[in-house]
Design brief:
Two copies of one chain form a homodimer. Chain A is α/β, with parallel strands linked by helices. Chain A has helices at about 1-10, 10-15, 35-45, 60-75, 90-95, 105-115, 120-125, 135-140, 190-195; strands at about 20, 50-55, 80, 100, 130-135, 170-175, 205-210, 210-215, 220-225, 230, 240. Helices cover about 30% and strands about 20% of the residues of chain A. Chains A, B: Hydrolyzes dipeptides containing N-terminal aspartate residues.
């Protein structure tokens, strides 16, 4: 029944979308993931989630990564199971909620393709409406493509297209230009502008560390501790304050 | 004659290699390319070069880029012709020397593939021995792959394999970790270490801004204003002083 409504009506599909996209897991002055605890717990509790499926593919040591992630979630009252300890595709199909952590975005996306998980996660989140939490690389892959990651291209994925849970790009760990710097490499803003040169129309949301995008159906709101910077082709970048409605970014 | 020697004897091929690989064109306190003027002029003069073929594909505005690059080369007594104003493949075949400037490495490499220039440049440099000067993105593509670029993946090239003029990787604009930083994104060293995790054996030379690698046949020497940092899988990173012999990196 859900399946047919999904294909008949895009709005029904989108109405199920529940995402929490974090710029980073670590924020200066806060314990791992702790700055986002309220938003994470609220999302999981509202959906009666007891166990979160963790995807550790962005780092090489999955078991160590799992141990790190279990701590805050357990403290908050949630179990964590890692996808690397089970049949990955089955785990996605059974998941109550998914958390994809940070690390290297290229390694993460390549692994998702290698294991045939891209479409499976997209369906589980957009069609079945399970909560998706991403941080850093996990936020990059949640968008339409990884074209605006900061990471080093250490492996070659079969495509830069990603989970496409939102129809725009995010740049996590967004950093403002440092006027006092003697470094001559491109600033983050210059890099994002180079991406926009390649597109006919495009939006890139630069999420500073501590900023979070909450998406509920067709509504998007900036949450967290700090504002974001929005880049739109042909326009001057604009500042986005915490609490701002960003639902217009969800229109393809 | 050159062709048959090339295929019969790898050493003959390598003996022709003449490269100058710059970390960056801009260095704090110096005019554009000026810090490397002596090394550039020496390389071109020794080879009786009068006209340099410029490859501007890493930036979007080729004409503007050409105007910028012409200035220092003219001042030093060399003509510059840009590949974007002629038949690209023919231009490579006729070139006396090639200079590939910085910008976005992904855009640069994709364009080289789109125009069938990867093999042509490789042959012209390794087989015919014309001087190759690269800066930043132009240094990245000179190595075996672009896996260690700092750039944003704004376009999807058909491969990360590049010109393969040297059998290792370079990270240009290398930056040491900033212990005072509140930023939680990966340091450059962490990113390079993630790359080494993916390889059985590999070398990455981190060229700080102002550092230059000079390759003459099977000899490589660090030149420029500042040292480099060398990353080898399974070993502690080591400091490389200006003037150091790095020829061992050329052994595949």
């Amino acid at each position: 029944m859900i399946s047919s409504r999904y294909h008949l009506d895009g709005l029904v599909k989108m109405a199920k979308r529940q995402l929490l996209l974090l710029s980073s897991s670590n924020v200066h002055g806060h314990e791992y993931l702790e700055y986002a605890a309220k938003d994470i717990c609220e999302l999981l509790t509202l959906n009666n989630v007891s166990t979160v499926l963790f995807v550790p593919y962005a780092l090489s040591n999955h078991e160590e990564y799992l141990k790190k992630v279990e701590q805050p979630f357990r403290r908050w009252g949630f179990q964590v199971e890692s996808i690397h300890n089970q049949n990955p595709l089955e785990a996605v199909k059974q998941a109550e909620a998914i958390f994809i952590g940070g690390g290297n975005t290229f390694r993460l996306l390549k692994t998702l393709y290698d294991l045939n998980l891209v479409e499976a996660i997209n369906e589980r989140v957009l069609k079945n409406g399970i909560p998706y939490i991403g941080s850093s690389a996990g936020t990059n892959v949640a968008t339409r493509s990884i074209h605006t990651t900061n990471d080093m291209p250490i492996v070659y994925p079969p495509s830069f297209d990603s989970l496409n849970l939102v129809p725009f790009n995010i740049n996590p760990h967004y950093q403002d230009p440092d006027d006092g710097s003697k470094h001559k490499g491109e600033t983050r803003e210059e890099r994002i502008m180079q991406y926009l040169e390649e597109k006919d129309s495009s939006h890139v949301l630069g999420l500073r560390e501590g900023a979070t995008l909450s998406v509920n159906g067709n509504t998007a709101v900036l949450k967290g501790l700090i504002g974001a910077r929005l880049f739109i082709k042909g326009q001057k970048p604009r500042e986005i304050d915490v609490g701002s409605d960003l639902s217009y970014l969800l229109k393809e």
